[in-house]
Amino acid sequence: MQIEENKSLKTLNTFGIDAKAEYFATIRSVQDLQNIISQNQKPIFILGGGSNLLLTQNVKGLVIHNSILGKKIERDFQHCVYVSAGAGENWHEFVLWSIKKKLGGIENLSLIPGRVGASPIQNIGAYGVELKDVFHQLEAVELATGKVHVFRKKDCDFGYRESVFKQKLKGKFCITKVYFKLSKRPRLNLKYGTIQQTLEDQKIKKPTIKDVSNAVIKIRSSKLPDPAKLGNSGSFFKNPEISKTHFNKLKKAFPNIVFYPLENGKIKVPAGWLIEQCGWKGKRVGNTGSHAKQALVLVNYGNATGKEVKKLAGKIIKSVEKKFGIKLKAEVNVI
Predict the structure, then answer these.
(1) Which of 66, 83, 99 is the last residue of a domain?
(2) CB 88 within 8 A of CB 66
(3) 223 or 24, which is more confident?
């Protein structure tokens, strides 16, 4: 296994930020990871697809690029199937693999950038579905000891774009494999966003999981920039959840406010709508800016530094808080 020095990470993060790793190595197995842990005495940073990451500085210590592959049906039952995927697998390719095998549950999560290993860390979600809805368990290596641990759903403390791996256990484990419970008879979730309308426009009356996936891909492609063409990390901010009392006050001041009632009694207000109301949508500031089609997405127009993007994010947060009394929180991991 080769360890490189002063490695550029520009092509390994979807923002296209030209930060460098002091030391860098790629792992393709649990054994690779355990070997490098046993020999290493430097701080470790685990890098997957780099799709939920903003690098504002060079990374000291050892950056380990998780490239553990493998997709497998583990257990097959009458109505459901348990499957596993290596943490280095491309998430969207895993979704398509599942759909090809007629296994439902993650079709709404099509075209989300990144790798399988990041999916439980973020509890990724889109169009009414979250990772926790299909999560079974995961395997992860403890970076301090090299020991393999198994985490069940209850161990992961899943929340809205949250998990124990972003909180109490941040930086302490490297996820190596994730297990999912998928359905042979899935209940399609068509209520969120414009999925239903997209299907109707295509005159699809009895949609399959493939149809839903195609609709999601069509919607996302129409709104979100391709990171290969324009650097970005997808949704930069979380959609805030506010109390009914706060919402009722905003509703009086802003009758056209977009909102979604939640089961926990709170109200979700799209961050993109808030940002747009503050005049940021499509606005360019130097080499960065808010995307013209989706204000929630901050982009790198070329040669932007991580500090430039972070500064823009800070300005957006202040303007939204001033106008709506809501403090946006970053969804991306800022280093």
Answers:
(1) 66
(2) yes
(3) 24
Same structural domain, 94 and 169: yes
The CATH number covering residue 295 comes to: 3.90.78.10
d(CA 51, CA 331): 11
Domains in the chain: how many in total? 3
3-state secondary structure of 105: coil
Q: Are residues 57 and 32 in the same domain?
A: yes
**208 has a pLDDT exceeding 90:** yes
Residue type present at position 285: V
Residues 291, 264 share a domain = yes
Exposed / middle / buried, residue 58 (Cβ in 10 Å: 0-12, 13-18, 19+): middle
Average pLDDT over residues 241-266: 93
In a domain, 214, yes or no: no
Active site residues: 161, 235, 331
- 183 with 80: CB under 8 angstroms? yes
- Clarify whether residues 132 and 171 are in a common domain: yes
What percent of the chain lies above the pLDDT cut of 90? 86
297 is written with which tokens? Answer: 């997405």
Q: What is the mean pLDDT of the chain?
A: 94
C-alpha 310/C-alpha 312 separation (Å) is: 5
pTM of the predicted protein model: 0.88
Position 1 pLDDT exceeds 90: no
**DSSP-assigned beta bridge partners for residue 104:** 183
Query: Where do the H-state alpha helices sit in 18-64?
Result: 30-39
Is the domain of 89 the same as that of 60?
A: no
pLDDT of 75 over the 90 cut: yes
Same domain, 59 and 106: no
In a domain, 238, yes or no: yes
Structural domain containing residue 119: 71-183
Residue among 148, 152, 151 nearest 33 (CA): 148
Q: Say which residue the tokens 């800022």 belong to.
A: 334
Distances in Å between the Cα of 215 and the Cα atoms of 76, 205, 225, 325 are 28, 13, 17, 35
Task: Find the angle CA(58)-CA(62)-CA(64) to the nearest 5 degrees.
Answer: 105
